[in-house]
């Protein structure tokens, strides 16, 4: 009896913990026995990333655009090619500057900038030429005391058959001469007669169209004696009147040239001839009138 009683007491004491363990084990969620998940971290360098820019699809040209482009191309192909003849002395040829820096070439450049096609610029000029020297060169005649042409003026004159220049016409003719006439003491009356002969020659080179001829006044560097400056003014009065009488355009560059006496940038190293800067100022006085004359010619 005692043994049975002792066994009963032990079962009473031990039964609740065993039952609790069984219940707890039964009630645990299934995740408690799942395989542990490994946390993985990727350490990527910081790179600024921009998505590729979407290029716009090229627009297909419209019929109007194609027509306009074709018209522009045709107009350019049909644009007349203009020619220029520059006549004179050392101021015309651009003594002491590069050929591209003289006023004839700068005039051509500014006309091109306005959309005018310039096919060529012929320059018949030489430092030291008087009006009669230039006339003789144009007519292919020899002058006993005529200065021998040098450089590109010589090449041009040597390549031209005698008298051929009188047979060729130009779209624009520009004339500037008289400084050497004045320095050698030629009278104003004789200068006027010689200059008028040159104007007649110039007219033959434009087909008689005076509107496409331009006379540039004689410059004065400001370094010459006062009496020479006075003589230059007298010569310019003559060539201006002759130009007006023949319906020829006149470009007064003398005032600009005299600024060289106080502005060294307008004069070359020799102290006499204009710099490229001064020539550019001369061209600015005439380019609009030359453009208008060419437009009127059609």
TrEMBL record:
One of its GO terms (molecular function) is phosphatidylcholine lysophospholipase activity. Residues 1-20 form the signal peptide. Keywords: Signal. Residues 86-280 form the SGNH hydrolase-type esterase domain. InterPro entries: Ester_Hydrolysis_Enzymes, SGNH_hydro, SGNH_hydro_sf. The keyword Ribonucleoprotein does not apply. Pfam families: Lipase_GDSL_2. This is SGNH hydrolase-type esterase domain-containing protein.
